[in-house]
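Morning run. Coffee first, then this:
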Amino acid sequence: MTLPIFATLQLITGMLSAKTAAKASAGFAANLRQDIYDNVQTFAFSNIDKFSTSSIVTRLTTDVTNIQQAYQMIIKMAIRAPLMILFSMVVSFRISKEISLVFLFLIPVLAVGLIAIVRTVHPIFSRVFGTYDKLNNVVQENLHGIRVVKSFNQQEYETNKFNGISRSIYLNFAKAERLIALNSPLLQLCMYTCMILISWLGAKAVIASGNDPALGLTTGNLTALFTYSMQVLMSLMMLSMIFAMLTIARSAAERIAEILSEKTDIQNPDDPVMSVKDGSIRYQDVDFIYVSKAEKKVIDHASIEIASGETVGIIGSTGSSKTSFVQLIPRLYDTTGGTVFVGGVDVRNYDLDTLRNAVAMVLQKNELFSGTIKENLRWGNENASDEEVIEACRLACADEFISAMPDGYDTRIEQGGTNVSGGQKQRLCIARALLKKPKILILDDSTSAVDTKTDALIQKAFAEYIPETTKIIIAQRISSVRNADKIIVLDDGHISAVGQHEELLKTSDIYREVYESQQKGSGENG
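And here it is:
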């Protein structure tokens, strides 16, 4: 009667163990993903530059899943298996100390073998997970640029590139799995060696004692030893499975630890300034480089003053550091040397949220997100009224095309804004920035996809309706900055010249060359 009761209890506790382990591991994985994602959100641009997007995605998905599986197995077996070994060996030693010493010789052999396997396999899995990053990067690039791939008829090239990386994963993973599989024959070798030694030593002890309990080992004792030895060996098998899972999870854990241990390069000061007085900007002997060991400065000894409410244009050739120049204002990067002041205060002394709420930046590669137009616009101000949303769109010359859409402001935007044109996307991003009601508005080549008439209307609206906002306009077209209060000419990270349009035509060779080439192009097109 006792045996069925204990068997039933074992069944019930086993089911509860499996359920609890599954729930606990899923919760652990969810918390781990959340911690990774939360830490990524704190990263400065310089931190993000260290990790590729595909690598972060792999760590959030594949790596976390591997750790979840290992964690679940540990919960189910890491306590149960050692206890079974302990209890079985205690009883075995009570039956026969001499025969039970077999366990003490074989367990170290198994442990050494497993450690050797782990040391060999770990570098392979580290290499595999790094290759997963490359695979995800290829998929991401291909899907993001699928129109380019098809327009250049490069599907076969992309397929071959994917197959090459996928095969590399297959070969490395297969090699690692073959090595891990060695733990099974190693365990079998130890198991059957143990059984043979127990049979041989036990049989000799039974014969010597004449099956007399008073003299030594009996047949019943020997049978019990076989039973307990099987429990010990089955528990060792469970532990070997945990070792296999931990070998995979170790590489994943190290990659996740890299993300979690990464601290943002840009942090709030101890006693931050909580308000921005105005939109005045001053660069004082500013240097900037992206990589600490780089020989060439991206920004080199830049000094300039911009009054609050001014409209400032920035012109320069490709690679002249125009974007890097303005990214220092909201502390997307910190200066390497010198100081950037906003509202008369060093930007490093501001509370980050306060500073960035005072600066609206329309980047070169702005993104729209899945959702309605209204939802995308309210990224600028989640509490904006419908009237404020419409007003911002009117200033950005976006209201007309939005109103022409079947669902108006409730029209859904597809992922990445693929269902709107480049010019429409830019105008929506400008409207989103205007909803912040910023003290400083930065447009980083953000009207390049709109026609010159619309560009002029946007500039006019800015001058009339947000005169107190400092407006910085990076542009390729002279027409976009011609009427600015001052124009900064950048050349290879240096401020080459500063002045108004007519003045720069006389004093700046770079500005004059750009202007004449555009005038010539305009004349030829006309």
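The mean pLDDT is 85. Good start to the day.
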